[in-house]
Amino acid sequence: MKTPALLALSGRRIPTLSPGASSFPHHRATLRLSEKFILLLILSAFITLCFGAFFFLPDNSKHKRFDLGLEDVLIPHIDSPKEGKHTSGQVVIHGQGGHDEHRHREEEESLRDKIRADHERALQEAKEKLRKSREELQAEIQTEKNKVMEDLKKKDAGPKPLPPVPLPKVVGVSDGEPPEPDAKERRDKIREMMKHAWDSYRQYGWGHNELKPLAKKGHSTNIFGNSQLGATIVDALDTLYIMGLHDEFKDGQDWIEQNLDFGVNAEVSVFEVNIRFIGGLLAAYYLSGQEMFKLKAVQLAEKLLPAFNTPTGIPWAMVNLKSGVGRNWGWASAGSSILAEFGTLHMEFVHLTYLTGNPAYYQKVMHIRKLLAKMDRPNGLYPNYLNPRTGRWGQHHTSVGGLGDSFYEYLLKAWLMSDKTDTEARRTYDDAIEAIERHLIRKSNGGLTFIGEWKNGHLERKMGHLACFAGGMFALGADGSPDDKAGHYLQLGAEIAHTCHESYDRTVLKLGPEAFKFDSGLEAVAVRQNEKYYILRPEVIETYWYMWRFTHDPKYRQWGWEAAQAIDKYCRVSGGFSGVKDVYSSNPTYDDVQQSFFLAETLKEHLPVVIIGVSLPLRWNEAPPFREHTLCDKLLPFKRTPPLGDGLRLPWRRKNNPVDQSHASPRRIGTKLNSRISHLYDLPTMKV
């Protein structure tokens, strides 16, 4: 046996190599158990994947349909059952299979032929349309639109028709001529001015809200949003009717029926839309008896109701007709609503309840009145601003002119409209007028009575053109005033009328400025350049009308005629009538706007002033027939004879009148039929 050799240096043993033995490790012939198990798992997973994939393959038969022609896709072949085989649980009788297959093929072929014919016809129609002119295509498109609109009207007739409302006998159109020699000439002149204004709008601005008579194109302001609602058409209808311009009235009626759509995406003034549109439509309804006007008024009123969705129930100044979202003017004090706006809804909304039986309209305006009755008023005055969120007054600014005017007017006319039964309205009016007399009405050094503006405890000795309506209001409210003050208020009305006449007479054009002062030796004269303009306003003429009716003093007729002549001389242009920027300049520049209220109020109120012995049914709202033609003027049919008589009649008659007058109502003529004139007549009692 050999001993291991030792290394000389390290002393380590070196293993002995046995002769014949391999120097490499031995290789195993089989796999270990763990390795077999891993291999088996891999193989099983592969088999499972392949087997499972078979079930998820798409159905190739469905993809084959893409290889078919269009007709094969639209008209799939119907597989006929084979003879003697069961299909869907039924037995196909021998001998019928071939017949059914033949019948299915015939039906399939017939359907293919029909589709081919339809395609060929559509192609032919397209070729014919390409050959047509642009005008022919537009006419065809309009015809299709009209057809669709008619179909929609038939389908959307509303949940239930509005109840019929008894209308008084026609008032305002009869035979007869004015008794005075010059009355016929003046009457015809006012009528001619109306026709010039209307014809110009008809030619250059039809369908637009207003007219730019110099540029001879349509005009609109932000009070109507970005929509073309035909404000002049709706606003002027009652004036056209009373003046006997029945062809023009019919043109307006047709446009409203076919084109007036309140579903537009437009943000409009609740106040302006109420007095111009709802008042105008109701007035037209009361005059003509045409149900379409009433339905349109109700449709629009429904669009305004979302404006009342505020924490206090005081409506927003503006509302989007489509979305119902409301907001206030950005310039209004502390985000407030305006007294003259939310306070000038009463008459129209009461009439809507009267006509529809829906109490919502009446409840909305009565809520406003009750809320105001609970509030404290500084010095008994109503500030012009009220926040609809908090129910608190904004800036303590009180005015009988802009921002406040028609609130007081509507209180009085609500009392008259109720046949003098709405004592709450009368009491509120009397209290307000007493505070106005105490704090706002003063006499100048020259002896002119004026109505100033109260601002944070101080009186500004300035009166606006808008405040000139108050002369007529004081006279109208004389009857029924407390403590036997009828004579006092009639005299106050006369003094205001005189002051406003002086504001006209002291200008070069004999037209009144927008505002005039009584300070530093100035009497009824505008100082600022931005107060020297005249935009065809009606308030002074309205007061002349009331004073003439109550006193029959001929000076009011003469003053009215002088104003009409000045308007015709300085405001008339080839394309209509325009406001002027400086009434103190002999060469005035124009503002290039023919306001809708010029036709609805100014010209309407000129008519009865210049014609002696003529009483017109006027709008009860703001425009006499309703003063600004809010509903009142436009709508309230009068119940009794005016206290000063004369009867209601127009001095001209149109033969073969196409408009049915059997349902005309003097009221609207007064409200928008107006508030302005309504006072002359007794309105039908309205129990709500």
UniProtKB/TrEMBL annotation:
Catalytic activity: N(4)-(alpha-D-Man-(1->2)-alpha-D-Man-(1->2)-alpha-D-Man-(1->3)-[alpha-D-Man-(1->2)-alpha-D-Man-(1->3)-[alpha-D-Man-(1->2)-alpha-D-Man-(1->6)]-alpha-D-Man-(1->6)]-beta-D-Man-(1->4)-beta-D-GlcNAc-(1->4)-beta-D-GlcNAc)-L-asparaginyl-[protein] (N-glucan mannose isomer 9A1,2,3B1,2,3) + 4 H2O = N(4)-(alpha-D-Man-(1->3)-[alpha-D-Man-(1->3)-[alpha-D-Man-(1->6)]-alpha-D-Man-(1->6)]-beta-D-Man-(1->4)-beta-D-GlcNAc-(1->4)-beta-D-GlcNAc)-L-asparaginyl-[protein] (N-glucan mannose isomer 5A1,2) + 4 beta-D-mannose; N(4)-(alpha-D-Man-(1->2)-alpha-D-Man-(1->2)-alpha-D-Man-(1->3)-[alpha-D-Man-(1->3)-[alpha-D-Man-(1->2)-alpha-D-Man-(1->6)]-alpha-D-Man-(1->6)]-beta-D-Man-(1->4)-beta-D-GlcNAc-(1->4)-beta-D-GlcNAc)-L-asparaginyl-[protein] (N-glucan mannose isomer 8A1,2,3B1,3) + 3 H2O = N(4)-(alpha-D-Man-(1->3)-[alpha-D-Man-(1->3)-[alpha-D-Man-(1->6)]-alpha-D-Man-(1->6)]-beta-D-Man-(1->4)-beta-D-GlcNAc-(1->4)-beta-D-GlcNAc)-L-asparaginyl-[protein] (N-glucan mannose isomer 5A1,2) + 3 beta-D-mannose
Pathway: Protein modification; protein glycosylation
Superkingdom assignment: Eukaryota
Entry's Gene Ontology cellular component terms: endoplasmic reticulum; extracellular exosome; Golgi membrane
GO MF terms held by the record: calcium ion binding; mannosyl-oligosaccharide 1,2-alpha-mannosidase activity
Catalytic machinery residues: E272, D405, E514, E539
Record localization: Endomembrane system
The family this protein is said to belong to: Belongs to the glycosyl hydrolase 47 family.
Protein name (record): alpha-1,2-Mannosidase
